[in-house]
Amino acid sequence: MTFRDLIPWRKTENIPIARDREFPFYPLQQRVNELFDSFFRDFAWTPSRVAAEWPGAFWPEIDVSDSGELVKVTAELPGLSEKDVEITLEKDTLILKGEKREEKEEKGKNYWHSERRFGSFRREIPLPEGGVDESKVKAEFKDGVLTITLPKTEEAKKQMKKIPIKTH
Q: Could you give the CA distance from residue 162 to residue 23 in angstroms, rounded to a whole number?
């Protein structure tokens, strides 16, 4: 192989898409592919991964469901109260913001133990465009779980189309 063969527009022969393991650069290509895969996989931040990577960080788990009549958002917010959370609707986006503060202090005869942790979060959930009746949105907070129900407008309900799935 000459250097000229590596230039795509100067190729004189058809190079197969999948290379043989005997190709001299195959191990290098495999390693580069693995590096790119792991690099982009590292951006997949999930709440459980954030908690594992940064024990003090707080990023609540959120479930979103669409029943056709309404969109329901459930957020797990352990250790928070309704006063710690702010809910807003901005241009077809539901925004949850909050802050978690924990302070512990123990004093004994021969010791004094103090811990402080705090963190804030902001989650944005896209909603159907023009599809939520803002006057009927409700939020309920119970036992560390926030549930928000967002009824759809009649127009949004009509836009929904069920797609049949064919099997072979």
A: 49
